[in-house]
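May I ask for a protein sequence together with how it folds?
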Amino acid sequence: MAQSSPPDSVRIAAPHAAYLASLIGAALEAHQAGQLDAAEPFYREILALDPTHAQALHYLGVLHYQRGQSEVAADLMSQALKLDRYDAACWSNRGLAAAALGHFEEAMICYDQALQLQPDFADARNNFGVALQAQGACNEALDQYRLALASNPAMADAHLNLGTVLARLGRFQEALVSYCAALALEPNSAEAHFNAGNAHSALNDHGAAIASFEQALTLRADYAEAHVNLGSLIGKRGHYADAESHYRRAVALKPNPTNLVCLGGSLGAQGRLDEEEGFYRRALALDPHYADAHQNLAWLLLKRGDYKQGWAEFAQRWRKSDYEALAIPGVPEWRGEPLDGRRLLVVGEQGFGDHFQFLRFARVLEQRGATIDLRVREPLLPLVGRIPGVHRAFSGTPRDPYDFWVPMMSVPCCLGTQLDTLAADVPYLFADAMKIAAWHKRLNATALETRKVGLVWAGSPTFGNDRYRSITLADLNPLSEVRNVSWCALQKGPAHAQLSGAPPAFRSHDFTGELASFDDTAALIMNLDLVIAVDTGVAHLAAALGKPVWLLLPANSDWRWLETRSDSPWYPGMKLFRQRVLGDWTSVVAEVVAALGGR
């Protein structure tokens, strides 16, 4: 009797293993070539034949991870590990899936398992570092990246990650070395060029930073973050139209709040106020709490004179870290509650000019019945201590109890300040009487019998709009020809060097070497008839002292000077001279010459 045929499972047993091997080989070949759609059917066929094929489960999981389907990936790799718990690569990849899901503790357990099986596994070390860094454990991440590179010095990704964590720790020079090592291995890494640009920028090597960002964009034209950072750097150089083009590209690629606000800011810097508002509104529609959008919108509204909405937006200007650095722990912030009999700490913020402008409100708050203390930057203490109504001025940590604290520039919002209710009584700052007398004697000794006019032509070069708000002393040369004026240089900082080649009239009375503090400058100003200045802290100081000030403003002037006025509601003794064309001071200087009485 003929023997019956064997069951199918027995009949195919011989070729089964070889067939599976050929399938897994084809799957891995396609997968390694980046052909995910071609690789997937091979993995599926393998698992249809053998659902317990650990390698197919593992790499099908990797495929789903690469597609961003991390939950599916994690499940497949977990199944693979139940079948083979000694696969170090699978443990490492399972950790990647966990990290992608935000499960960092689980990810680190997976990496640790991989490293117990294979201590020199560079990929697992690198991945472990990424998970640690994501949780803020930067020093621990640093160790893992270095161990990864000890195992595999040619691992470009580990060099890149090492640079990233060094940059986060503020060690930018070391970070740059790591980025250069990554680029030596992978010269066409757009990410490495981008990160190198950030390190150069942090080290104030803006030329190198711009070159790095440009190279990143050459390699990856749709790199939105590189467009933004390049736009920001060239914007700092005053090339706002070029910055705008990069921001527009970034917004087209990623219309997120950050990119929208950057684009709006570049338009505002060009004086295109109507265009910029829409981008801030779009940013706030996406994120109603986005601080930078609130701040830029506030500046726009305030510049238009809309103080009601402007101050309300300005009250929402805080980034969390900035607010926490200023806030007084355990003391509630004042938001307009009755002040009679209360102790209020007013905390200074931003630059010296902002302090001088907003210190006026100390007297208003004291008149509402509060005991007012001021916490300000140390160089301001002598001047601030003489403000009427101020109980105490200090710098550093508060030592007294308070009922409320308030950021200095939030006071107008709390008071409901409008243009027609602005506290504009000057002076509210007062120089030291003995120093005033000493300068009076000094100026009389130099026989300054004509009008004594102080001159400031430049602000800090680190200010974002300094290219346009400052002027070269050479551009002011026509002023030196005006008769019956004795010019007194009040210019500090790098721009003071311009005096060396200036006309004799500008050089004759240079006392800046003796101005060691704002208190000294205030005393000298009190002996002058007029101060002519660009938009700097000295201009605010002179105006707050009650001295006449002529302010020279660029076409893209700051919010506080409104749009078209030639006077200032903040300072009754101030006259504004505005550019007609951004960057062109010719007409402004001519107007000042005429106002001084000609040549």
